[in-house]
Design a protein that fits this description.
Blueprint lengths: L2 E4 L4 H4 L2 H10 L6 E3 L1 H8 L7 E4 L3 H10 L3 E6 L4 E6 L2 E7 L1 E7 L2 E6 L3 H6 L9 E2 L4 E3 L4 H7 L8 H7 L2 H13 L6 H10 L8 H12 L4 H10 L13 H14 L5 H8 L4 H10 L4 H11 L11 H11 L1 H14 L7 H8 L13 H6 L6 H16 L6 H17 L1
Parallel strand pairs: 3-6
Antiparallel strand pairs: 1-10, 2-3, 2-9, 4-5, 5-6, 7-8, 9-10
């Protein structure tokens, strides 16, 4: 395999844990190279996250080489050629070069090889089939460099066959196009995605949500969801996504306000559903409990926020909702309005949470018990009445005043 180009080696290639792991593997005499996303992002000058390594050495030999260099080796998928090296708290996935003998959905029976091109041929996209030596020399058996330069996300080999092997690649195509592609999308890939879309039903809910979460965080998530809808893919995973216009407006607002995108907020923006439907979607996607609660709260807010709320009403809403939910609902309301990204009144409402200091009711259950109220539901009811009174007074009464109010209410309970 001939070199296809070279980049200036980055710091992590020549020093630190990644360099040490590569050197340990190279001590066996066979070349070890960085592969996949870390190479792709290094070429583009983007931040590199996970660093993966490929080698022709068989997995048991990889274990020996790592352990011989004092590096912890974990056999995370040794039957499929994968070992994880752990050094200085960093994890590196090392995979023996291989080719698929037979595929079973997301699994495959593999055969190890020393052929770098054969290994590249089993990967999903050409831009993920790039290899790199520690000195920055690039190897490109699948044509990924030209695709990367052109902003083209293209399957390695036959697109339909790649998706048949693993239907998750269908969603990954749209995600990678969202982050690395420029219009127009690869026609062969789109045709294959459209034809294979019914197969998405075989995917686990967790994997679907994992990909959707990343798509929702794309630079222009509304555009990529629209592309999925145009090619009859979106309905198989997120039929509730009917408000692409609101999502697009929200992203423009976030950019104007310097706010980072948020997957749950984006999901709430793209749907027009009530709390029950939001909860049903969350169960279907097997979302985490915290994600579910937040999505339901956004879909069915206890308070509707508008710039018309005066200062006191805003303080009450901030107390009842909490600062984070208040800000999210303000952004959603802004996106749903016709105000556009430059709207001082909406901007002020969304920023109200930034300067808000949370307050707490100055009395608690133990104060009611000390006043002779029996433990149980009555304590909660009385505290609720005190809280409503305190909120109605714009949070002004201090602890002494709240205790006096609680005592007044407790007297009625004891008298009964």
């Amino acid at each position: 395999m001939r070199p296809a180009g070279k980049i200036a080696p980055l710091g992590w290639m020549v020093d630190g844990p990644a360099c040490a792991v590569l050197a340990a593997l190279g001590a066996g005499g066979a070349p070890a190279r960085f592969v996949g996303g870390c190479v792709r992002d290094a070429i583009l000058g983007r931040p590199v996250k996970d660093i993966d390594i490929a080698t022709p050495e068989p997995p048991q030999r990889v274990m020996q080489l790592l352990q011989g260099a004092g590096i912890r080796a974990v056999p995370t998928g040794i039957d499929h050629g994968t070992v994880t090296a752990v050094l200085d708290g960093a994890h590196f996935e090392i995979t023996t070069l291989r080719h698929d003998v037979e595929t079973f959905g997301r699994h495959a029976r593999v055969s190890f090889t020393d052929d770098w091109a054969a290994d590249a041929s089993r990967r999903d996209f050409t831009i993920n089939a790039l290899f790199c030596d520690a000195d920055g020399t690039i190897f490109d058996p699948a044509g990924g460099l030209a695709d990367l330069k052109a902003g083209r996300v293209r399957f390695v080999g036959d697109a339909s066959e790649r998706i048949r092997e693993d239907v998750l690649r269908l969603l990954r195509f749209f995600r990678f196009h969202a982050f690395y592609g420029t219009p127009p999308p690869d026609a062969e890939a789109l045709a294959a995605c459209r034809a294979r879309a019914p197969g998405l039903a075989r995917l686990s809910a967790e994997r679907v949500w994992s990909e959707l979460r990343r798509i929702l965080l794309a630079p222009d998530p509304a555009a990529i969801l629209a592309l999925m809808a145009d090619h009859r893919v979106l309905g198989h995973v997120l039929g509730e996504a009917t408000r692409l216009d609101r999502l697009a407006a929200l992203v423009r607002i976030e950019e104007a306000c310097g706010r980072a995108g948020d997957a749950i907020l984006h999901l709430a923006a793209v749907m027009d559903v009530d709390g029950a439907a939001a909860a049903t979607l969350a169960r279907r996607l097997r979302m985490a409990n915290a994600e579910t609660r937040r999505l339901v709260a956004l879909a069915a807010p206890a308070t509707r926020l508008t710039p018309a709320l005066d200062g006191r009403a805003r303080r009450v809403a901030l107390y009842r909702l909490g600062g984070a939910l208040f800000a999210d609902l303000a952004l959603l309301g802004w996106a749903d309005s016709a105000a556009g990204a430059d709207a001082p009144a909406w901007r002020a409402l969304a920023a109200a949470a930034d300067g808000w200091t949370p307050v707490s009711l100055p009395v608690a259950g133990r104060d009611a018990v000390a006043l002779g109220v029996p433990r149980g539901p009555e304590v909660g009811r009385l505290l609720g009445e005190v809280e409503d009174w305190w909120v109605a007074q714009d949070f002004a009464p201090d602890r002494a005043a709240c205790l006096a109010k609680l005592k007044e209410l407790a007297r009625g309970v004891r008298g009964g």
